[in-house]
Amino acid sequence: MPTENPSEDEFKNFLAKPEFELLKCFPSQIQATKVMAVLDVLSNHSPDEEYLGENMEPSWAENPVITAAFERFNGRLKELEGIIDERNTNLKLKNRVGAGVVPYELLKPISKPGVTGRGVPNSISI
Fold this sequence. Notes:
Elements: H1 8-16, H2 18-25, H3 29-43, H4 64-89
């Protein structure tokens, strides 16, 4: 592992073959595999996950004021999804469109199961 004050031998090795010193910085295969497995588990959307604004609580349906507010909120979420889609296709926005640019989908309201990089869940527990 490199240090801020390398010994004379470490510095000579670095100057002779810097790629070997770089490789010492990388994790082992087992460490990298563990990190990838944990990230996959934490990034995965379950099939029964509920998303923000997707379903109204049954007790809210009894109150017309709450129902109207939920419908406005749900409509606004759909508007925001449309804005995200429009910006992803706007050729004037160079950071959103072009060769090698992945469209922004992180805050789109709803996602499919799996690792999708989109969807705002109702709650998060880790």
